[in-house]
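User: Design a sequence. Structure:
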């Protein structure tokens, strides 16, 4: 590992400029957790990993497109959901993994293809320390967007919402 002065010199950054920026840097603003509810999301990432406790897991990251009540203020926020891959967790993880198109354990190692969209149900929880956080309690696949469509466009969000209302009408007939 090199010295900071050597690395700065090699990158053309003056140490006094970095020192001044360091002294004037404030902590970034913290984002409050999202309100409880259902969010239209795009699957952003899904990968095998180890949990902090060392357990094998399949970690999913969703990108919020729209929040409860047609709220677009949450667009771009992230939601995470970890599915544990242990014998005792299999009965819980397997149905969730199937929603991602994963039918076998061998499928877990295959990369996800295409844009996948989900309605993600979120709760607001509070830890023992009083800190609030989000917990994904489930997700359901929703109609994919047309190929090449911008998932953030108002038309795409409107289509997701319109399809949801059509499904509700079919259920009540």
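Assistant: Done.
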């Amino acid at each position: 590992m090199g010295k900071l002065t050597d690395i700065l010199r090699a990158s053309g950054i003056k140490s006094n400029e970095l020192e001044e920026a360091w002294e004037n840097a404030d902590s970034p603003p913290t984002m409050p957790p999202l309100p409880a509810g259902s969010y239209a999301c795009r699957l952003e990432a899904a990968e095998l990993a180890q949990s902090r406790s060392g357990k094998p897991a399949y970690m999913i990251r969703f990108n919020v497109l729209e929040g409860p009540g047609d709220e677009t203020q949450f667009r771009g926020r992230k939601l995470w959901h970890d599915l544990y891959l242990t014998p005792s967790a299999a009965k819980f993880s397997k149905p969730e993994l199937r929603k991602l198109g994963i039918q076998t354990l061998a499928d877990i190692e295959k990369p996800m293809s295409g844009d996948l969209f989900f309605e993600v149900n979120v709760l607001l929880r509070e830890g023992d320390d009083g800190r609030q956080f989000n917990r994904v309690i489930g997700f359901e696949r929703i109609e994919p967007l047309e190929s090449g469509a911008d998932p953030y466009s108002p038309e795409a969000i409107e289509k997701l919402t319109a399809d949801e209302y059509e499904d509700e009408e079919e259920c009540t007939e």
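The helical segments are 4-11, 15-24, 90-98, 154-172. Residues 73 and 135 are 19 Å apart (CA to CA).
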